[in-house]
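To the wet lab folks,

You asked to see what we're planning to order before we commit. Fair enough. Below is the target structure as tokens, and below that is the sequence we designed to fit it. If anything looks off to you, flag it before the synthesis order goes out.
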């Protein structure tokens, strides 16, 4: 009887269409880590656009590191062997930003982030595009959950049915008394 339940769940899950995701408008994220020498950022130089984010991420490093902008725009905090710090370069932060690992600056642990200005667009076109995008996203977010609700309702029905069968509360038969 158990394989029937498993096959039913697999069959129903194939009809669950869509995806669950964050609907906020997101920009690109570039990850900067520490290379294998433990004394260099990797990559040491990146180019991004205004609105993009840089994530400084390393875990279990031999030496403690941090990332501090020389122009004091961002600071990942005290040096640590495990860092997960994200900074978003807002509009107006374009230019070249040099950052260092404070404990290892003297041995050349320096990085560069080049932030390019965001492209200039016509505001009237942007407003219409954003409204259309939000409307399309709001329609898309409801549809996947309907499939999930259906799957959960069927699973709940199957659990109640199974409980009834194991407790002897219900008997089912495909044959009526006359056919037996």
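Sequence we intend to order:
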């Amino acid at each position: 009887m158990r394989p029937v339940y498993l096959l039913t769940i697999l069959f129903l899950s194939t009809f669950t269409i869509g995806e669950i995701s964050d609907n906020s408008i997101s920009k690109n994220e570039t990850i900067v880590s520490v290379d294998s020498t433990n004394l260099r950022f990797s990559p040491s130089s990146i180019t991004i656009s205004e609105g993009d984010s840089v994530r400084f991420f390393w875990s279990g490093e031999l030496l403690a590191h941090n990332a501090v902008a020389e122009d004091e725009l961002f600071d990942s905090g005290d040096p640590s062997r495990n860092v997960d710090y994200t900074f978003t370069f807002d509009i107006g932060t374009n230019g070249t930003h040099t950052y260092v690992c404070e404990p290892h600056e003297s041995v050349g642990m320096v990085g560069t982030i080049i932030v390019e200005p965001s492209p200039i667009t016509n505001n009237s076109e942007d407003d219409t595009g954003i409204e259309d995008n939000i409307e399309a996203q709001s329609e898309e977010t409801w549809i996947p959950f309907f499939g999930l609700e259906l799957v959960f309702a069927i699973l709940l029905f199957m659990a109640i049915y199974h409980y009834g069968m194991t407790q002897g509360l219900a008997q089912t038969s495909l044959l009526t008394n006359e056919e037996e």
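Structural context that might help your review: Residues 18 and 55 are 29 Å apart (CA to CA). The mean pLDDT is 77.

Thanks,
Computational group
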